[in-house]
Recover the amino acids of this structure.
């Protein structure tokens, strides 16, 4: 059995072991796996992009003691951000 198939089997078993009473079709299982992979990839890409923008000073990260950080435009770098990324919506 290939390493990829073993990893998929591990993911599926983890889902069933952690979701008491779960039952789904082949297509249903494939969909939730793909959806989870897409979410993970999107979150990872967004995190990397935010780190880049924060490192350039264009975005500010405001840490909240009670929850996750909040990101916002660095108002003092607005002109630089507009010239680099445009201000269109």
């Amino acid at each position: 059995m290939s390493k990829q198939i073993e990893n998929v089997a591990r993911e599926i078993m983890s889902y069933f072991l952690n979701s008491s009473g779960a039952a789904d079709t082949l297509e249903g299982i494939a969909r939730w796996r793909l959806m989870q992979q897409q979410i993970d990839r999107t979150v990872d890409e967004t995190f990397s992009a935010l780190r880049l923008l924060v490192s350039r000073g264009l975005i500010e990260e405001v840490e909240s003691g009670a929850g996750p950080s909040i990101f916002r435009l660095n108002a003092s770098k607005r002109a630089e951000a507009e010239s680099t990324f445009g201000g269109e919506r």
Observations:
- The longest helix spans residues 26-55.
- Residues 56-89 form one domain.
